[in-house]
């Protein structure tokens, strides 16, 4: 997929000439460690991918909005109007709800949008794989709106915040800031060490020596019945409320593991809420340690922390699933694998592993063949590198 294909399609369906069409790209992301910490005021460590969503946009002279995706050609053009954007919280909607949510957010934040837009997009991130195709679409829409209407005070960090705001308040998914932040702020060959409490961030060079990041797509997506993501958020909020009666903290990200051990019984010994909070607190500390390890070129340690992250997400946070656990187990059996874990929101999607380059073929063979044998599904493998954030192309 590339921007030429999008531009060509844009002109085919909407007509006109290339001249007044602007083109952009926003990447997806893979999170290396720091999972389900972003809405707990903790740290995350994602990097932007070179895969993402390409888009073409042109200002209209009326207030209509038109959306077309080359990934959903059969759906045709979705239409709406700047005057009819309505949040529909928590229901699954057509894909254009993501860009609509961002346009709506600009208006909510006081930006006057005088004219509608024609938009065409195409992405090369597999949908629902946990690599943030939706966040990339949101950040892409943000840059389109900023650029088209000249909202120069809107920073790239704002593009991330507006994307999250739209997702939370227009679409009702209570996501944190990680995905949109990585898409907006990514840097080639670096991962982003972000403190979600303060939004302070730092770039860490992804120096993996003779190893690479390998993503494996399980191709399973368990339905989020009863919205388990939002449930996890609520459980963590409950833990925080209880802890606050005893400790001076504003988020679980403020808590040390010693403090957790001292006060954990307040949550009920072995309770669900205790396990959720344990993950949030320990995962945050693991993330901080992992970044130090990477900076000290200690990839073995980084990998151990990734493994511990997965085990905690599987056992305490319960956001993994059988297929993902199988991929992780198989990955860890291969010589030359430093660490392997689920990445993203969970309940399916992808794993991320750090693999020695000369072990990648063996990795694909071992993991791929046994996974297919046991599940009947052909996993997909992507050897990835970190790319830049949102930009004009
Ligand atoms: C999803 C959300 C993120 C983050 C991850 C889990 O990707 O969009 O904000 O919470 O899950 O780490």
Write a concise synopsis of the structure shown.
The chain has 393 residues and is an alpha+beta fold. The protein is built from 11 helices and 12 strands.
Question: Care to describe what's here?
Answer:
This protein is α+β, with helices and mostly antiparallel strands. The two termini are 13 Å apart. The strands form two sheets. Strands 1, 2, 3, 4, 5, 6, 7 and 12 form an eight-stranded mixed beta sheet that branches. It has a four-stranded antiparallel beta sheet with strand order 9-10-8-11. The chain has two domains: 203 residues, Ribosomal Protein S5, domain 2 (2-Layer Sandwich), CATH 3.30.230.10; 174 residues, 2-Layer Sandwich (Alpha-Beta Plaits), CATH 3.30.70.890. It contains eleven helices and twelve strands. The chain binds alpha-D-galactopyranose. Alpha-D-galactopyranose (GLA) binds next to helix 5.
List keywords for this structure.
393 residues, alpha+beta, Ribosomal Protein S5, domain 2, Alpha-Beta Plaits, 2 domains, eight-stranded mixed beta sheet, four-stranded antiparallel beta sheet, globular, binds alpha-D-galactopyranose
Chart the SSEs and their pairings.
Elements (H helix, E strand, L loop, with lengths): L2 H12 L7 E12 L9 E17 L4 E6 L8 E4 L15 H12 L8 E7 L9 H17 L6 H14 L8 H8 L4 E6 L4 E6 L5 E11 L6 H17 L12 H7 L8 H24 L3 H17 L6 H12 L3 E7 L4 E9 L3 H16 L4 E5 L6 E2 L1
Parallel strand pairs: 3-5
Antiparallel strand pairs: 1-2, 1-12, 2-5, 2-6, 3-4, 6-7, 8-10, 8-11, 9-10
The protein binds alpha-D-galactopyranose.
The site of alpha-D-galactopyranose has 11 residues, from helix 5.
